[in-house]
Amino acid sequence: MVWPFENNTKKMEKRLAKRSLAADRGRNMVAVFTIGLAVCLMASVAFIYSAMHESTVARLRGQYQSGCSELSYEDIERLAASGRFESWGYEGDGGNIRYADTSITVHFYDEGMRELMRVEPITGAYPKKENEICVERGMLRYLNMPEETGQSLRLDMGDGEQEYIISGILEKENTSRQYDLYISEALAAKGGEKPFTIRFRMKGGDMEQPEHLRTEIKLFYEEMGIPERVTFYSSTYFDLNDIYLGSDMPVYGVALLIAVVCAVVIYNIFYISVMGKLREYGRLKVIGTTPRQLRRVVKYERRALMCVGIPAGMIGAALLVTVLYPGYWNWTRNLQYAAFIIAITVIMVMAATRKPLQLTGKVSAIEAVRSNAYQAVSERHFRTGKPSQPLSVFRLACMNFTRNKRKTALTLISLGLTGVLTACISSYAASVDVEELCRSGFGDGGDYIVDVEDYSTSPVVQRDGLLNRQMREKMLDLPGVDYVTSWSRVDCKVAQSPDDESIYIVGGYTREQMEGYGENDEILEGDADYDALLENDGILVTRDGENLLEKLYHLKLSMGDTVTLQSMEGVSKDYTVMGIVDYRKGSGTYASFVLPEEELGTLYPGIEDFTSFVNIHVTQASDEQRQALYKLVDDPRAVIMALTDMMELTETSLRNTLLLMYGMVGFIGLFALVNLINTLMTNLLTRQQEFGIFQAVGMTDGQLSRMISTECLCYMGVTVLFTISIGTLCGMGTVQLFKKMDLFGKLTYHFPAAAMLIFAGVLFAVYLLFIPVAIRFLHRQTVIERIKVID
């Protein structure tokens, strides 16, 4: 607001700001680049998170909601003719087969099912004839077969070994040696009178609450005469929705970190700019310009830079996300992120330029007669009262390095932060042991796992004695096997469960395994006494840190509650909760309840051995050993997993995670390098007169080059020392923190020598590039031209 008795100087202030911007294009480019890069990085993180969120939501919403099995063609046509489905498809289950040392799951999917299940693209054609199959590309690669269609493969699909023609290749990378194989509808139809299963999505189901939708589907089944025993519901759609979607807090945390780093650079840029223009501001003071008007000039400059940098960064991030995640742009969510990023960027720039603005307002008219923009700072610094000392190239470089401690400190902080983050990430990468990491989550730390996963067939498999004592003794006789551990479990329904169809895993522990709860301090409440549980019909409830029983199944149990277990064969019995325990690693699939092993026979009479999960520990794993195990356990109902397969998958995942983290550090390092280059170039601009005077009194070009090189090396040396000292401590602290959290198995700290050498190498490369540019820049003018006072 302009009062009636005041002069309106806004036009003049804008004109001065425009001229200042036009006269300092280098600084403007650096500032716009820094602001734009910060906004682009923050917006990219936010928009990519939003796109991943949308992708997850689309995947969840695109999942089938329910389905039913044991259907004929007539049943499928009758269900589809109801007009209640939004999308649907049918499949045939060919079971599991073995080929060499691989496990293969056989499917038939019609076109609707392939879309519903989001099957990867197929090169070639989907099988149409009985003797045609479609296999994964990773399987062909592992078997050293040509990656092309038309070749034959002999397989035993359950009716003897036959020759099949590969009509299509599934574009799916897989190193686990557990593959999917697709067969034709003609072959799947030979699987019995009712060989098909349908999966579907109800019309308007996305608009309903999960409980209402489940009730509607259940009523639909009753109307269509589908027995409840053959129906099922997607746990991914109904139960895991909240777990997958996550929180937005990491996005805001990353944005704040980037904003802080960017603020340091922006502060340095504006501080150096203001210090370089003190003479100009002093002259304006002489002709009557007020401090407020000077501050408004700088504010106009600040606003102009933000008006260019922020939109450029936003557009760059939007284009990046559009290319990486086409079709997953959410305007509502992204506008919220954009508003937050713009607000935090404006606040960051305003905070970063607060001190330079204060310096602008405090400038005095006497600054107009100074011959160097840093003269006042230099005089305050060097009037120490100390006796004069002989000058040398090294001493001059050190004096220049410490001339403006604040500017130097800000530059070193930004470089040091990059070094510390690099040290933390590389320390983790160097200290993690992939084998130990995988062992910590691979059963009880063995080398092979033999598991019966399908709950619908596990009682049959247990009754057949697939993993009984005799089989385990044969496993123990395999070459190189040290010992074998086994765990028992069954599948039951729980009468108290909110969902009648939910299947719960019940572990059956031996006396020694039960005693392990006390030895490992895993008893949270009550007791885990084997004999007491047997005598009093007691049961243990598993409650880990995630409390999956309550989160997934919405079943909350306390000490003394009654739990009614019903086996898949219809046997029921009531149990009393006598203890609450933590999840036992190594026992296989998460067991919601635990009973004494003898008690499993009550729920499933007639089964002598309930073993369904075996850990095999070996002296040294080998391909011959693996093949011998596959040959021994040749029943496809048993799934064999090797630690080496898990290690390959983990290494790939770890590599991708580290690349993402190093990418973030790279962006932050880019800010730091921009800050460093801006500082060094500004030093050259403001000290041209000094360099000219030095050369006028005898300093050679070689000495001048060494002085500038030494000053640059001071920045590099301090940064490297800071990184090695503070970064090493922070790296050790990061490893210890992860070790205490027990997230990544056994961690042993190793100094990340390779990463530190690369970091130092990047700094040295900047040094090598900067020195020739600096010398060439100084040689553009003669010594006389540099000595002249620049007006």
SSE inventory with pairings:
Layout (H helix, E strand, L loop, with lengths): L9 H14 L1 H38 L3 E6 L1 H8 L4 E15 L2 E8 L1 H6 L5 E3 L7 E5 H6 L9 E5 L4 E10 L7 E6 L1 H4 L7 E7 L7 H15 L6 E3 L1 H4 L2 H5 L3 H28 L1 H9 L4 H34 L6 H22 L1 H9 L12 H8 L10 H9 L3 H27 L2 H7 L7 E4 L6 H7 L4 H8 L4 E14 L9 E6 L1 H9 L3 E4 L3 H6 L2 E5 L5 H6 L8 E6 L4 E10 L11 E4 L3 H4 L7 E8 L4 H10 L6 E4 H44 L1 H9 L4 H41 L11 H26 L4 H5 L4
Parallel strand pairs: 3-8, 5-7, 13-18, 15-17
Antiparallel strand pairs: 1-9, 1-10, 2-3, 2-9, 4-7, 5-8, 6-7, 11-19, 11-20, 12-13, 12-16, 12-19, 14-17, 15-18, 16-17
Helix pairs in contact: 1-12, 2-10, 2-12, 2-13, 2-26, 10-13, 10-14, 10-17, 10-26, 12-13, 12-14, 16-28, 17-26, 17-28, 18-26, 26-29, 28-29
Characterise the protein shown here.
Helices cover 54% and strands 17% of the residues. About 1% of the residues have low confidence. It has 791 residues and is an alpha+beta fold. The strands form two sheets. Strands 1, 2, 3, 4, 5, 6, 7, 8, 9 and 10 form a ten-stranded mixed beta sheet that branches. The two termini are 35 Å apart. β16 and β17 form a beta hairpin. The protein has four domains: 183 residues, no CATH class; 168 residues, no CATH class; 215 residues, no CATH class; 185 residues, no CATH class.
